[in-house]
């Protein structure tokens, strides 16, 4: 635990990627095999299920620290991270020294123990660990190790330590493996993997296009397709079974039983990359519709009927058991079309083909992009015809080229402290639009929250202003004098009964601080409603 | 309670009986000043009464002002009100201000810390009926380690950078923090270079306190001559072109805010050392108890939370808005003028 906590401290105390990779690689060189497997699992978000709920942790921590519960909660709001708050308010001595793997071996069965046994174990370790060990130990319980280490960085460090190629490692670490049972030998070192059955390929992800498309060169080398707004997924057909993986590397087969139908039509040894889309009333629905499916572990018949899903196929990664990823996109597409075209006309089969388009001029691509909203897509994907299917987020061959967002000018009404690197700064904002009541009074109605889009310097300025212009405090939230106008961008909007404004916005964020506008010039709720398609 | 001995007005903390303000934030005729940081000693007052060590500091900052220096414990009376200054341990020359009238005693803490930093005259609790306290770090999440441990970490960091051929850049306030750091740096590792803002303040402090040797960075300073040594710089230098000369370097900030992982990442420094010139949670509670005060007024910092906690402990505690900024100013001074 000491070494792992030391590693986390090092990763935590630098912003330099090279230093992080070095620290991680030297840890991989020194740690025991079991600790290595657990480290890989934790850094790729495969933590054991939470053995103790956070309500209990908070209660015990305030008890052990000898502070009233409300004071612990206030501290938590300000620190912004529960494990960090606990590590800060509880004092301990360095007395316990045990390997990471042992701590996890002890934590996992804790889930089934009595509350008293849980408390004894957790408190004993809080008091027996140093600050960073206590922080890391509590993080192992609460989960969510967000310490600026992406899967990519972890894979790169492991590659540095083992000499195994990064892309091969990325593939080995994908999918469903259990850190409890797998050895480092099996997971990382062994050449022939026995259980590849359900394993997805690492997703190829695109960056947003920053410049004009003209800079991409000759349009004839490119294909465009619509960028659909659902869940990017891989559907795997092997051994007469279907496996559905989301981009977050989550096996979601059970959530989308529709796809078992495809087993009758698609042969073993096939992997399709596509987008799961809601398809109510035989047409593409909104992301709001899909959200009703995402949350459910088991799906009722009524919901299946109301909001069925389809797979919009983009790419073919495996065919007849052969990995196609090195073939040019154009070739893979041809095979995909051969496979999918006979199935698409049958509306009972939940497979559709995302159409690719080639144009002579970039202006034609742009015109197609302008039709995105009416086609219910988020914009275009641009893919080079000869591009292989790469691993992870890479620049060059694939670009996403989203439509310009919808925007509206709104008034800052409430602010809340941020989390993580923004704890202690007011960076989470609520925005209002003007509405005229029945009595003819103008009032600001909340329509969206946003916490991204300003620079650090702007956030500091707004934060300082908020601290001086607070009207009321509600725990971590403050209401402020309506004064500042911000241009808010969002991807789409839909009528909603759950929102006070009657409208739900998708992915709202701050586009600009309109210091040139007074609050009287901000938009009205009616302006917003006019944007509903 | 009619006419409290000290009242909070829009100009500052006011003793009506004496016609004197304590650390006012708007220009007044007569001001008693707790210490030299800019949010406590502002420009434009008719007279400044402060500790004698603070006189050269505020004259350096504010230029030609009418100032009077007094020593620790020396009392002076204005219209029947007795005033005296007592060490606050925050920075050199920092004082608590004791105010007594007809047997009633108030103490204004200014900024203070309970630990001895080896540079400032250590804090002494002063018995009083009412205590006006800062609570910059008034949360149980703040617990300072002994400064020896922190300085051991800082010196190890410097030695490690030196062994890698890098220059160490350590950010800290030019008044107080910089001299405290300087006092405890291990100069067997290398030389200490200073930013002009810090060196100018060092020259002032050296008139009454010995400080280790430093070299001022000027236009003539060469990159190679800095390598492996340590540079003390004000937080405002972070991210500025001034740092270009020091490449390759590692940066660190010494501040109480570095206790939070988020604060360090926001500052984008390579290392954060938790070192503050304010009280931590336990320090605040201990010193309030030592004053024996039954009435406590909490000013800058987590004042609402802290005063609620004190009320639950049975004290008559409340919050007053002031324009003091404590260490918050430090965190936000990456651009513009350095505030404290």
Automatic annotation (TrEMBL), chain A:
<dbReference type="InterPro" id="IPR012308">
    <property type="entry name" value="DNA_ligase_ATP-dep_N"/>
</dbReference>
<dbReference type="InterPro" id="IPR026333">
    <property type="entry name" value="ATP_dep_DNA_lig_pp_1105_fam"/>
</dbReference>
<dbReference type="InterPro" id="IPR012309">
    <property type="entry name" value="DNA_ligase_ATP-dep_C"/>
</dbReference>
<keyword id="KW-0234">DNA repair</keyword>
<keyword id="KW-0227">DNA damage</keyword>
<dbReference type="GO" id="GO:0006281">
    <property type="term" value="P:DNA repair"/>
</dbReference>
<feature type="domain" description="ATP-dependent DNA ligase family profile">
    <location>
        <begin position="302"/>
        <end position="435"/>
    </location>
</feature>
<dbReference type="GO" id="GO:0003910">
    <property type="term" value="F:DNA ligase (ATP) activity"/>
</dbReference>
<dbReference type="GO" id="GO:0006260">
    <property type="term" value="P:DNA replication"/>
</dbReference>
<dbReference type="GO" id="GO:0003677">
    <property type="term" value="F:DNA binding"/>
</dbReference>
<keyword id="KW-0067">ATP-binding</keyword>
<dbReference type="GO" id="GO:0005524">
    <property type="term" value="F:ATP binding"/>
</dbReference>
<keyword id="KW-0479">Metal-binding</keyword>
<dbReference type="Pfam" id="PF01068">
    <property type="entry name" value="DNA_ligase_A_M"/>
</dbReference>
<dbReference type="GO" id="GO:0051301">
    <property type="term" value="P:cell division"/>
</dbReference>
<keyword id="KW-0131">Cell cycle</keyword>
<dbReference type="InterPro" id="IPR012340">
    <property type="entry name" value="NA-bd_OB-fold"/>
</dbReference>
<dbReference type="InterPro" id="IPR036599">
    <property type="entry name" value="DNA_ligase_N_sf"/>
</dbReference>
<dbReference type="GO" id="GO:0046872">
    <property type="term" value="F:metal ion binding"/>
</dbReference>
<dbReference type="GO" id="GO:0006310">
    <property type="term" value="P:DNA recombination"/>
</dbReference>
<keyword id="KW-0547">Nucleotide-binding</keyword>
<protein>
    <recommendedName>
        <fullName>DNA ligase (ATP)</fullName>
        <ecNumber>6.5.1.1</ecNumber>
    </recommendedName>
</protein>
TrEMBL record, chain B:
<dbReference type="InterPro" id="IPR001279">
    <property type="entry name" value="Metallo-B-lactamas"/>
</dbReference>
<protein>
    <submittedName>
        <fullName>Ligase-associated DNA damage response exonuclease</fullName>
        <ecNumber>3.1.-.-</ecNumber>
    </submittedName>
</protein>
<dbReference type="InterPro" id="IPR026360">
    <property type="entry name" value="Xnuc_lig_assoc"/>
</dbReference>
<keyword id="KW-0436">Ligase</keyword>
<feature type="domain" description="Metallo-beta-lactamase">
    <location>
        <begin position="24"/>
        <end position="122"/>
    </location>
</feature>
<keyword id="KW-0378">Hydrolase</keyword>
<dbReference type="InterPro" id="IPR036866">
    <property type="entry name" value="RibonucZ/Hydroxyglut_hydro"/>
</dbReference>
<dbReference type="GO" id="GO:0016874">
    <property type="term" value="F:ligase activity"/>
</dbReference>
<dbReference type="InterPro" id="IPR050698">
    <property type="entry name" value="MBL"/>
</dbReference>
<dbReference type="GO" id="GO:0004521">
    <property type="term" value="F:RNA endonuclease activity"/>
</dbReference>
<keyword id="KW-0540">Nuclease</keyword>
<dbReference type="Pfam" id="PF00753">
    <property type="entry name" value="Lactamase_B"/>
</dbReference>
<dbReference type="GO" id="GO:0004527">
    <property type="term" value="F:exonuclease activity"/>
</dbReference>
<keyword id="KW-0269">Exonuclease</keyword>
